[in-house]
């Protein structure tokens, strides 16, 4: 099944294919302040629309590669 919006559930061979596609389409650009602000707006919208129970703390889920050792 393919949808234009929202999550989609897949299983079996479709799941394997989807995971491969997702791995290859990983973010290739750094996430900066502008992207974080945009993601925060989306998180707020999802919370307002009751898609999520509360606003997700986006920054908490972003890895700062400059701090890795």
Describe the protein.
- The protein is mainly α and 69 residues long.
- It is built from two helices and no strands.
- It is flat and about 35 Å long.
- The termini are far apart.
- The mean pLDDT is 83.
Number of strands: 0
Overall spatial form: flat
Helix content: 40-55%
Work out the strand percent.
Answer: under 5%
Q: For the residues shown, what is the average pLDDT?
A: 83
The tally of helices reads 2
Low-confidence stretches: none
Compile the SSE list and pairings.
Elements: H1 12-24, H2 33-48
Observed structural traits:
69 residues, mainly alpha, 2 helices, 0% strand
Put the structure in a nutshell.
With 69 residues, the chain is an all-alpha fold.
């Amino acid at each position: 099944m393919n949808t234009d919006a929202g999550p989609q559930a897949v299983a079996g061979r479709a799941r394997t294919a989807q995971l491969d596609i997702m791995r290859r389409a990983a973010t290739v650009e750094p996430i900066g302040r502008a992207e974080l602000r945009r993601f925060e707006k989306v998180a707020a919208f999802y919370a307002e629309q009751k898609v999520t129970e509360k606003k997700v703390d986006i920054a908490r889920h972003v890895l700062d590669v400059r701090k890795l050792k």
